[in-house]
Every structure is written in structure tokens, then in C-alpha cells.
Design brief:
This protein is of the alpha/beta class. 48% of the residues lie in helices and 11% in strands. It folds into two domains: 218 residues, no CATH class; 70 residues, no CATH class. The protein has a six-stranded mixed sheet, with helices on both faces. The longest helix is centred in the C-terminal third of the chain and has 74 residues.
Length: 323
């Protein structure tokens, strides 16, 4: 009988929630909808009556997505007012990630277009169809540092007028949340506790009371053999990515060190060359001056006469006349 790999488990025996399979099974399954609902309430600071999962988790869908390499958001939710919320976990830095986030958000936004269930005005005019667009929010959890210029754990982008900061439609009608889990030390309140839970598992030393209803489903989360095999494969891919990333980072550091050492050696060589040239020039000037002064002496010029012409060379003149 196959045993569960420790690679996909936390120290307390629960599944690592940053594993794609565990993440989607916890937040994308109907039996855990209360967990997903509380997550959205705590992060957005709003009260939600109920949620509907538009792409419920199933292991076959995950494997098919990976096999066909098509793009689909991890968890897609509809709130009671028709607003869509996409939840995405990103473990690896990707090129054009911001553009992809906008793509996912735009697809979620368009899902309710012309849906009679959410259309406010019924008319033949096409303009009324747009009343069914109730908004969309993209909630992105990043297991790496995307925004390196600050320590903010959460970045919120929404449509607002630049000077007045007035919402274009309404607050968070079309918005993107980016939560960098590596910055949980700079977070506070409920956001911080959720970040710690997702990043490191249950906070054993401090169990916030508001997460008690979340810890239970996390502890009870179970996987089939097929799911565990897929989770292990995802974990291996993740570890391979980290190893490759570390290898190239160390290689870049070594290369940078070599470049810096080469630059320093070049600077030293150039400085030595410059000093040598200056010394040579100075030496050449002194020899020419001595020869000129000797010629003046031979022509019968007195020491005082030569000193009056070249007072700056008095020491050399004195030496020549003492010979």
C-alpha cells in the first residue's frame, strides 16, 4: 500500500495548501464552500450571503488542463449579486503575469453579459444588455515576490479617476488583488493569519478564533491515490523549479563576482598605466629642463640671471652651478 509522501504534507500532517491539488480541492469544492466564503469575506471586508462555484474542483479537470495546456483560472466563484471572483495561486514567476491576470479577470467579467438573470432593464435595445455586467474581482495569491520595491503584502488595482480617486463604476467593480505570501511578516489582522495558513499551514502556537471553522476542513482534507500522485508530481515540479532557480541565481552571483573582480583588476591596471605615463612625462620634462639650463650656463649666463628667468627652477639651477 502506497504511503503519502512527506513532501506534500506539513509538519502537523495536513496537506500543504500551496500545492495546486490541495489548494483547489480546499477552495474549489462544494463541501468546503464555507471556507471559500469566509476567505473572501475576510480579505474583501464584506458580508457575503452565499457563493456559487462555477468551475468546481475535480482531479480529472486538473489533469486535462495540464495535458492540454489550456488556460483556466484555479477557482471561479459567483456571488449572490452576480459579481464574479476568480482565485488564483501562482507558485512560479511567469512572464506577462500581469497581462494574464487581466485576461482571466476580463473572461470572468464577460460571463454574465446579456444574462437575463442579472439584467436590470428588459428592452430590445442593446445598451441594456450591459446592465448584466455586475463586476469581477481577481484574487491572486503569489508564492514569490512580484513587487520588489515595497513591503506591502497586498496590492489592489482598480478602475479609478487618477486625480480624484473616484471609482469609474463602483468600488471594486473591476479589481485585481495581489497577495504576496512571502510578505506575511508585514501584514496584520485577518489577512496575516490567512497568509500564514496558506504559506505554512495551521499556526499551532497561535490559533485565531475566527479561523476555527477553517482549520477543521483543512485537517479533514483527504485525497484519493490519484490525487496524491498528482499532488506529488506538482510538488516535484515545484522543487525542480526552485532548484533550477537557485542554480541560475548562484551562477549569476558567481558571474557577477567575476565581472566585478575583472573590472577592479582593469581599474588597477589603468591606474598604474596612468601613473607610469605621468611619471614618464614628468621625468622627460625634468631632463629637458636640466639640459636647457646647462646650455645657458655654457653660453655664459650667470646663476642670478638664469634664476630671474626661471625662478621655479632655482633648486635645479643651484645644483647645476655647484657641479
Amino acid at each position: 500500500m502506497k504511503t503519502i509522501s512527506r513532501d506534500i504534507l506539513n509538519s502537523n500532517g495536513t496537506y500543504k495548501l500551496l500545492n495546486d491539488v490541495a489548494f483547489k480541492k480546499l477552495l474549489g469544492s462544494d463541501e468546503n464552500k464555507q471556507v471559500t466564503k469566509q476567505l473572501l469575506e475576510d480579505i474583501f471586508g464584506i458580508k457575503i450571503q452565499h457563493i456559487t462555484l462555477l468551475n468546481p474542483y475535480h482531479i480529472d479537470k486538473m489533469k486535462e488542463k495540464k495535458k492540454l495546456m489550456y488556460t483556466q483560472v484555479d477557482v471561479l466563484i459567483e456571488l449572490e449579486n452576480g459579481k464574479k471572483v476568480s482565485i488564483e495561486l501562482q507558485n512560479q514567476r511567469k512572464e506577462f503575469f500581469q497581462q494574464r491576470s487581466l485576461y482571466y479577470l476580463s473572461k470572468a467579467y464577460m460571463r454574465s453579459y446579456n444574462d437575463p438573470q442579472y439584467q436590470e432593464y428588459f428592452d430590445d435595445k442593446e445598451d441594456f444588455r450591459y446592465s448584466s455586467l455586475k463586476g469581477a474581482i481577481g484574487l491572486n495569491f503569489l508564492n514569490y515576490t512580484q513587487f520588489k520595491d515595497d513591503k506591502l503584502p497586498l496590492h489592489l488595482y482598480s478602475l479609478k479617476e487618477e486625480q480624484t480617486q473616484k471609482a469609474f463604476v463602483e468600488e471594486n467593480h473591476f479589481a485585481l488583488y495581489f497577495i504576496e505570501l512571502n510578505k506575511h511578516h508585514y501584514a496584520s489582522g485577518k489577512l496575516k493569519e490567512w497568509m500564514i495558513l496558506l504559506k505554512n499551514g495551521e499556526n499551532i502556537s497561535k490559533r485565531p478564533e475566527f479561523l476555527e471553522n477553517v482549520y477543521k476542513p483543512v485537517r479533514k482534507l483527504r485525497m484519493s491515490l490519484e490525487e496524491e500522485l498528482e499532488a506529488e508530481e506538482r510538488e516535484k515540479d515545484w522543487q525542480d523549479y526552485l532548484a533550477t532557480k537557485l542554480y541560475f541565481e548562484n551562477g549569476l552571483k558567481r558571474k557577477d563576482k567575476e565581472v566585478q573582480e575583472a573590472k577592479k583588476a582593469q581599474e588597477i591596471a589603468e591606474n598604474n598605466l596612468k601613473q607610469g605615463i605621468e611619471q614618464g612625462i614628468e621625468q622627460g620634462i625634468n631632463e629637458n629642463q636640466i639640459q636647457m639650463l646647462k646650455v645657458l650656463k655654457e653660453k655664459g649666463f650667470k646663476k642670478s640671471e638664469i634664476e630671474s628667468i626661471y625662478p621655479e627652477l632655482s633648486q635645479i639651477i643651484a645644483k647645476i652651478f655647484s657641479e
